[in-house]
Amino acid sequence: MILMDVRMPRMNGLEATRAIRASSNGKGPVILALSASALDDDRDAALRSGVDDFLAKPCKESDLLAMIQAHLKVGYLYAEEETSRGTEPAVTRASALNPAVLAQLPAELIDKLQQAVLNGDTDGLGELIQRVAEYDRGASDALKELADNYQYDRLTGMLQERSQELGVMKQQ
Fold first, then answer.
1. Where are the domains of the chain?
2. Chain segment 85-136, per-residue pLDDT in tens
3. On the CB side of 155, how many CA atoms lie within 13 Å of its CA?
């Protein structure tokens, strides 16, 4: 399976897909196109180029896994995360992100974190998570763990919840 980004330097993903399809004599790999553009025309162009399916970025982990499962006919087994080197598992760290902890963070920082997650800006997200450490080291570690494990849905949910709380406070 190939996860093909549509926008790449030199040769774009659609050209690369056509080249792979032309050289594989019908025995090529499954190709999933990934693009920041989710317009119907872009999706149609990708499918016409020979990709097997299309995902808009940023994509949800569950959507990507479901697509992989459908195309490769695989199943998933999930193991509980074990502690290693005396550190807490991610689930425990993430539970440190309760509303009281997030309430310590400025609204502007919450908004920037939320935008970085929604835009798939991993570099910017990393920098913002480092800024969170100025307010709460545990929250920073928990956010980093979620980001490192691609739990963007969970990050988005937590940050949206905090944004909504801030919106309610502004209205009062």
1. 2-72, 90-171
2. 444 444 445 555 666 677 778 889 988 998 998 888 889 999 999 998 888 8
3. 32
DSSP 36: S
Overall pTM > 0.70? no
CA–CA distance from 146 to each of 9, 28, 53, 97, 136 (Å)? 30, 34, 27, 11, 16
The C-alpha angle with vertex 53 and arms to 49 and 54, in degrees rounded to 5, equals: 90
Both tokens assigned to 5:
């980004």
User: Domain 2-72 - what CATH class?
Assistant: alpha beta
Is residue 47 within 8 Å of residue 55, measured between CB atoms? no
* DSSP codes, 40-67: HHHHHHHHHHT-SEEEESSPPHHHHHHH
How far, in whole angstroms, is CA 44 from its chain's centroid? 23
38-42: long-range pairs with CB below 8 Å, 24+: 42/6
Chain segment 125-163, per-residue pLDDT in tens: 999 999 988 888 888 888 888 888 888 888 888 888 777
Neighbours of 163 (CB within 10 A): 16
